[in-house]
Amino acid sequence: MKIEAVGVVVRYPGLGRPALDDVSIEVPPGTLYAVLGPNGSGKSTLMRALLGISPLTSGHVTLDGRSAGGWNRRERARSVGAVPQSEAIAFPLTVREMVAMGRYPYLAALAGESAVDRAAIARALQGCDVADLADRDVSTLSGGELQRARIARALAQEPRALVLDEPTASLDIRHEMGILELLRSSADEGMTVILITHGLGTVAQFADKMLLLSRGKVAAEGVPTDVIREDVLADVYGWPVSVHSDPESGAPRVTPRRVASF
């Protein structure tokens, strides 16, 4: 699925500047596209705009050439999976039941799971390393375990595009890298993956392209080496950093510097 935003502006009441100000991106199928930026830079607003949730002041967003707001809920749920930064769990359910919710767009009224549904759920549980937690109530999970279950739910949808807001938050190193490897593999198989993250250096090992936002505007966009630069990051984040190449992958890695006078 091709996801495109052109000249997107989003304004919130009471905010003196636009939350997004003339943001344009083009994400072809099979791309892992990372969105970076400081707190309040517009990353989550961009996610909501791409999903057709946030009303646009101007500009437009298209999914495979169709307006994002023109998709009905069922067809959009079959094509686009989403993992928001947080959500409230309103009722008791097991991990498997949560992951199975990803199959709802495919179920007929009053119909049970098919063999295809069960296979998709099993793959998602296994891929996110939560198969052994399948019978646990989600209220008993750690933050990282719950995050992996939420990602599994989105993957169980078997969408053509996946948009994730801070999906590796709360994860330990093994699970962070495992999820990123899974998303990279999904992109290599043709899925469009848009990943919102604070992990500057880590995600650079996996991303095809990156977008850096600052106060709602595009500060930099391109391949990781075009975006992960000392001068650009220091200007956007207001903190000095060192950038060097990873000896194995060649991807840029970021180290914040100490500031003695802070």
Structure overview:
Helix 4 packs antiparallel against helix 5. This protein starts with a strand and ends in a 6-residue tail after the last strand. It has a single domain, classed as Rossmann fold (3-Layer(aba) Sandwich). It has helices at 43-50, 73-79, 95-100, 115-127, 143-156, 173-188, 200-204, 224-227, 230-237, and strands spanning 3-10, 20-27, 32-36, 58-63, 66-67, 80-83, 161-165, 192-196, 209-214, 217-222, 241-245, 252-256. The mean pLDDT is 93. Strand 11 and strand 12 (252-256) form a beta hairpin. The chain is of the alpha/beta class and 262 residues long. It has nine helices and twelve strands. Strands 6-7-8-3-9-10 form a six-stranded mixed β-sheet, with helices on both faces. Strands 2-1-4-5 form a four-stranded antiparallel β-sheet.
Q: How many separate helices? A: 9
CATH class: Alpha Beta
Order of helices and strands: EEEHEEHEHHHEHEHEEHHEE
| Number of domain units | 1
β-strand percent reads 15-25%
CATH superfamily: P-loop containing nucleotide triphosphate hydrolases
Query: If strands are numbered along the chain, what order do they take across the biggest sheet?
Result: 6-7-8-3-9-10
User: What's the shape?
Assistant: globular
Task: State Rg.
Answer: 19 Å
Assign the structural class, choosing from mainly alpha, mainly beta, alpha/beta, alpha+beta, or little secondary structure: alpha/beta
CATH topology: Rossmann fold
Sheet of most strands: 6 strands, mixed
Percent helix, as a range, is 25-40%
